[in-house]
Write a structure and sequence with these properties.
By secondary structure, the chain is of the alpha+beta class. It is built from 26 helices and 10 strands. The chain is elongated.
């Protein structure tokens, strides 16, 4: 009976993640609760994951990446590295080389968060579509992250799953067990993208460029005439606060722009009102309130600096809420004038649009809007701002240097990586390199909880014997296909699960099967888990296969086809290289 229950839970997990019925963390939570209710796992087994050393390492490494991002350490270096680079191919090569090499030792997700705005701003300044840069940026981060145990949270999660087995025969992966395959593919992947793959990238227009070319479709400017019925009234009393399919974002008065207009603002004759949204309603507004359309093109007169592009962060608390619900205007002192998703033009009132991870928001910023957004973790700012003046040089250098030192000491076996990272955080707090508030905000609690729940699902697979059943099915093909056949099957399963659901679900399902194959089939365990790790982490063929792919998906206005065209050849190349090197290394 237990096996049927775990099969049902696994089907729900895979289908829910693929169809996006629920958020990732909720899907894992529901699955784990179902297993506990059915007494397949105990609460103690679930909580035991919280003490797993590698779960803490994953969270701490992600936190370090976020702190370095907020200290603007890399931005300072980027401005010097790319100061005189204004051609596409040299810039593409440099930025891929940078993110690929740094992802070897730093978690690649925060690195992409740092480099996305820089690549996007460079593309706008140099007349290159950001869609020509963002997928290569994500892929380079993935390639670099697969070179070491700590470069990708997926690799560390493999060790988390292995450490839950008490058998003395099971060895954990070392820091550089990934380096031969990962290093070769970092070079081959770099060359593939730079000389072949880039040709498959679309040439999509930036959101700001599209708005400027089609400003009447998004923004409408109307002037209050002397015959208007709303002269002397507040925004609220004039009925301009909750318009159907239109949104008041700005008032121009005597050459001055009033942004994020308050409800109490009193209207005067000759005021110019700027609306955003579905413009087919403008004629009704004009006729009912005595307005006249302005012939000026707001965005031609207004510079790009008036507009800021935001991307809803993967772990944002505002995902699933409407713009009205998050009170964007009052909290951030800015007005959202457009939301873009999957090349789809969203209709209706902007305030009623339910935001999703990766959505691109175009906003007109108030006086301190940028600062308010940067103090939150809900958005990534894509416009190049004057952040560099806030660069905290000493703090950034010490934190980055401490991270590298911790990794070096761990690789030499002097201290464990967890101990080194904890000491680094303690020193950083003691000498006020970071504040307790900065540390708390940098911790990705959702990531930690998802991994803990994935560990519990892995335990359930082993306890119920389902992993043994699946392992026996694979071993039936060993006589006909040999070890190489088993390797290919495992790799393809890892790629498919990672592409269709998530890499964390992929390793949670496949690692228990690998352990069982090694125990009952007599195969070496290390090559099996390395193959699953590479197949799950090196995810290139869908946007939701890896977090960095999802981060650049909306901003680059990509389609699923774009990922497949450039990612499928790279996936095949990775599979051939990984299986070949691992087979000849361990046999």
């Amino acid at each position: 009976m237990e096996r049927y229950i775990i099969i049902g839970v696994m089907v729900f997990l895979i289908v829910s993640l693929y169809a996006k019925w629920l958020k990732q963390e909720i899907t894992f939570f529901v699955s784990v609760v179902a297993l506990m209710v059915c007494n397949i796992i105990t609460p103690q087994e679930l909580i035991g994951g919280l003490s797993n050393e590698y779960v803490l390492v994953i969270v701490l490494l992600f936190s370090l990446g976020e702190l370095l991002r907020k200290l603007h350490f890399l931005e300072y270096m980027l401005d010097r590295l790319f100061r005189n680079t204004n051609r596409y191919k040299p810039f593409l090569g440099k930025i891929m080389l940078l993110v690929g090499s740094m992802s070897v030792f730093l978690n690649n997700t925060p690195l992409v968060a740092i480099l996305m705005p820089y690549a996007h701003s460079w593309s706008m300044k140099n007349g290159v579509s950001s869609s020509k840069l963002l997928i290569p940026l994500s892929f380079a981060a993935i390639l670099g992250g697969c070179c070491t145990l700590i470069g990708s949270s997926t690799n560390l999660m493999v060790n988390s799953l292995l450490s839950d087995y008490s058998s003395d025969d099971i060895e954990l992966l070392g820091l550089f067990d990934f380096t031969i395959v990962g290093g070769v593919m970092l070079v081959l992947g770099f060359l593939y993208i730079l000389f072949i793959g880039y040709k498959f990238l679309p040439n999509n227009k930036n959101t700001t460029e599209e708005i400027q070319e089609n400003s009447r479709e998004f923004l409408v400017e109307a002037k209050i005439t002397s015959k208007s019925t709303i002269i002397g009234k507040s925004i609220e009393d004039a009925g301009l606060r909750n318009l159907d399919s239109l949104y008041l974002v700005q008032v121009n008065r005597n050459g001055e722009r009033v942004k994020a207009v308050e409800a109490s603002f009193i209207l005067q004759v000759a005021d110019e009102l700027v609306f955003a949204g579905d413009t087919h309603m403008i004629m009704e507004l004009v006729s009912s309130r005595g307005l006249e359309l302005s012939q000026e093109d707001l965005l031609e007169e207004n510079s790009r600096a008036e507009l800021i592009e935001l991307v809803v962060a993967p772990n944002s608390l505002i995902a699933g809420k409407t713009i009205k619900q998050i009170k964007f205007r009052s909290i951030y002192n800015g007005a959202v004038i457009a939301v873009h998703r999957n090349k789809e033009k969203l209709s209706g009132r902007i305030g009623d649009i339910v935001l999703k991870t990766g959505d691109v928001l175009l906003i007109i910023a108030g006086e301190d809007c940028k600062e308010r957004i940067q103090n939150e973790d809900n958005f990534y700012i894509m416009s190049k701002l004057q952040d560099i003046r806030n660069f905290r040089s000493i703090e950034g250098v010490l934190l980055f240097g401490g991270t590298v030192l911790s990794v070096v000491l761990a690789s030499l076996g002097i201290v464990s990586l967890l101990s080194g990272l904890l000491v680094l955080f303690a020193i950083a707090l003691l000498f006020q390199i970071i504040t307790p508030r900065e540390l708390y905000k940098s911790i990705n609690f959702k990531l930690g909880l998802v991994i803990v729940m994935a560990l519990a699902i892995g335990k359930a697979l082993a306890k119920t014997g389902l992993s043994s059943d699946l392992a026996n099915v694979l071993l039936q093909y060993q006589d006909g296909l040999g070890v190489l056949g088993i390797y290919v099957i495992l790799y393809v399963l890892g790629v498919m699960l990672s592409a269709c659901v998530t890499n964390k679900a992929a390793v949670a399902i496949l690692i228990p099967i690998c352990v069982t194959i090694a125990q009952i089939g007599g195969l070496a365990l290390t090559p099996l888990v390395l193959l699953v790790a590479f197949a799950s982490a090196a995810s290139f063929i869908t946007p939701h296969g890896y977090q960095t792919n999802q981060m650049v998906f909306q901003l680059g206005k990509y389609s699923y086809r774009d990922y497949f065209k450039i990612g499928f050849p790279l996936t095949l190349l990775y599979m051939v290289v990984a299986i070949t090197i691992i087979y000849y290394t361990y046999h």
